[in-house]
Design brief:
This protein is an alpha/beta fold. Helix content is 34%, strand content 18%. It contains 9 helices and 13 strands. Helix 1 packs across helix 5 (184-197), helix 4 (156-164) packs across helix 6 and helix 6 (214-225) packs across helix 8 (268-281).
């Protein structure tokens, strides 16, 4: 049994991690402001990541999973708060790569500002650098789009809702823009194996090696919902984010290093099916955007 700290622990990725490591028999602590319900079996350390928390120094964690750390200051606050730590894993982002980087994005490519993600990406870079300066043996994971149980962003859910409303789906462009996903279960499995094998490499891109495009993503979602799909293709005169939950941004990651550690991931159909089953029962936990439907009704359908 390990003593594990998960920063956050109440929403999507951090919640899934906290519950996963509790269920497999660890002593899991979450660090958050206690503004959301806490998962069963975890132990709450109440605090604010924008400040140093002396309470954390009372514990010597075997593993720290830094999930909801978005800036250099938040990372430094966390590092200054901790006592002795065994392993440290930071969930960073693929937004650290400039969009001009040749595809697929490789971990050996320089990081830099990405105009799509803006400060989110540059702040993640600064947090990575602060961590590696303080703990060179820490591991940094750079994912694409997460999906799976506890998804709280209106991505897959939007497509499912269109299907359940028996709507045609409005496809940006020709629908061939690539999308790369990563299931939250695969994240846990990768971390497990990473900490067993402890490779010399400390920065990993993580994600499915099989890329799907918008067409296939929507087709799978409608199929899972058991609905007929009619596609309407929308030209580039319309802002994609007005009616579709992903930016007009084609990228994907080289995840060779990840597959050297764990040779498989959850098939996208299986992952989206679990996602759909969870979504149908927990729609109130998703941050829905009515503006997508308003744009479709008021602009695209006229």
């Amino acid at each position: 049994m390990k003593k594990i700290l998960v920063t956050g622990g109440t929403v999507f990725v951090s919640k899934y991690l906290a519950e996963y490591y509790t269920l497999v028999g660890n002593e899991v602590y979450t660090f958050n402001r206690a503004t959301h319900p806490q998962s069963h079996g975890v132990k709450l350390i109440k605090g604010d990541k924008t400040k140093v928390c002396p309470e954390l120094k009372k514990y010597n964690f075997d593993l720290v999973l830094a999930v909801n750390i978005y800036t250099e200051k938040e990372m430094l606050n966390l590092l200054d708060s901790l006592g002795d730590v065994g392993s440290f894993v930071f969930i960073s982002s693929s937004a650290v790569y400039p969009e001009s980087t040749p595809l697929p994005f490789n971990v050996n490519r320089p990081t830099g500002k990405n105009s799509i993600w803006g400060d989110y990406g540059t702040n993640k870079i600064a947090a990575e650098n602060a961590l590696l300066k303080a703990k060179p043996d820490a591991y940094i994971l750079r994912p694409p789009y997460f999906y799976g149980k506890y998804q709280n962003l209106y991505r897959e859910g939007f497509v499912f809702d269109c299907a359940m409303k028996n709507m045609p789906f409005y496809i940006p462009g020709d629908g061939k823009m690539p999308l790369q996903f990563y299931n939250v279960y695969d994240l846990c499995k990768f971390i497990d194996n990473l900490l067993i094998k402890k490779p010399d490499t400390h920065i990993f891109n993580v994600g499915n090696k099989d890329i799907i495009d918008i067409n296939k993503f929507v087709e799978v979602c409608y199929d899972i919902a058991g609905k007929k799909l009619d596609k309407i293709f929308v030209d580039s005169s319309h802002n994609q984010r007005s009616y579709f939950p992903f930016y007009d941004y084609s990228y994907y990651l080289d995840v060779t290093g990840q597959y050297n550690i764990v040779p498989d991931t959850v098939p996208i159909y299986n992952g989206l099916k679990e996602d759909f089953e969870y979504y149908i029962e927990h729609q109130n936990e998703v941050m829905k955007k009515s503006s997508y439907f308003e744009y479709i009704a008021n602009v695209l359908q006229k």
